[in-house]
Amino acid sequence: MDPCHESVELEVVDGPGRDLGKARDAYSSGDVEASKNAHDVGLVGYPVGGDSKEEHAGEGGKYVKSLVYGGLDGIITTFAVVAAVAGGALSTNVVLILGFANLVADGLSMGLGDYLSSQAEDQFVRHEMKREKWEMDNYMEGEKREMIEKYMEYGFTKEHATEVIEICANYPDFFLDNMLVHELGLMPPDDNDSPWKNGVVTFLAFCLFGFVPLTAYIILPPLDVDSNITFAVSCVLTALTMFGLGVVKANFTNQSKVKSGSLMLMNGGIAAAASYAIGYVFSVALGEQ
């Protein structure tokens, strides 16, 4: 037997085809052997089950956009309010009034916005999916010709593209998903996705992270702590939380934790500096300082 063919004739047993978590770790470290082992899960001679994360790897990742989107916006906008008030040398009461008003109003707005945008995207994809299904039912030859042309754009010969598409056409669900991705650039909808959950995650993340800059102004003033120290503590808490938010994002996107955290920190720092400067300039211009 040809050794090249022998190397791939491995019996597949029931179970996941790879350990996605280990595959990602192997890629991050550049370990080729670890990558091979991660992809050989489920083949005879390799362990099946156990630590495999293939099936559930995306469950938490579904909401990472809403978590980061809501959390980052919450902590930056609230801290911007705090920085502006500090720059304008206004009282602690003003910080709390404006801070909590921003927290609730913007949080609701962000959550609702995420819900509506996710719902609109889902409805659009499902509408396009129904249209493509209708076209398949009524003119399959035309759909196959479009896909053959699309595959030829990827470098397939006409013969190979025709062969592949003819095979795919025997599996209507797969063919439909394939058309969505390659013809329209849309990902097939996931029945487990929930726009309202995205909205709730965004709202809760906004409120949770947005509350951080205000904690110093709730705890320290009753202890007669100087306002400058209170602002400094708020800055430290906010910076640590922003960096932590970047680390959380990196865990889902397989990026450098330090780089991701630093980018979050830089983003928040620029916004806060601008807000503080505006508060100071307007306070001086209006004769408040």
Automatic annotation (TrEMBL):
<feature type="transmembrane region" description="Helical">
    <location>
        <begin position="75"/>
        <end position="101"/>
    </location>
</feature>
<dbReference type="GO" id="GO:0030026">
    <property type="term" value="P:intracellular manganese ion homeostasis"/>
</dbReference>
<dbReference type="GO" id="GO:0006826">
    <property type="term" value="P:iron ion transport"/>
</dbReference>
<keyword id="KW-0410">Iron transport</keyword>
<keyword id="KW-0408">Iron</keyword>
<keyword id="KW-0472">Membrane</keyword>
<feature type="transmembrane region" description="Helical">
    <location>
        <begin position="231"/>
        <end position="252"/>
    </location>
</feature>
<keyword id="KW-0406">Ion transport</keyword>
<keyword id="KW-0926">Vacuole</keyword>
<keyword id="KW-0812">Transmembrane</keyword>
<dbReference type="GO" id="GO:0005384">
    <property type="term" value="F:manganese ion transmembrane transporter activity"/>
</dbReference>
<feature type="transmembrane region" description="Helical">
    <location>
        <begin position="200"/>
        <end position="219"/>
    </location>
</feature>
<comment type="similarity">
    <text>Belongs to the CCC1 family.</text>
</comment>
<dbReference type="InterPro" id="IPR008217">
    <property type="entry name" value="Ccc1_fam"/>
</dbReference>
<keyword id="KW-0813">Transport</keyword>
<protein>
    <submittedName>
        <fullName>Uncharacterized protein</fullName>
    </submittedName>
</protein>
<dbReference type="GO" id="GO:0005774">
    <property type="term" value="C:vacuolar membrane"/>
</dbReference>
<dbReference type="Pfam" id="PF01988">
    <property type="entry name" value="VIT1"/>
</dbReference>
<feature type="transmembrane region" description="Helical">
    <location>
        <begin position="264"/>
        <end position="286"/>
    </location>
</feature>
<keyword id="KW-1133">Transmembrane helix</keyword>
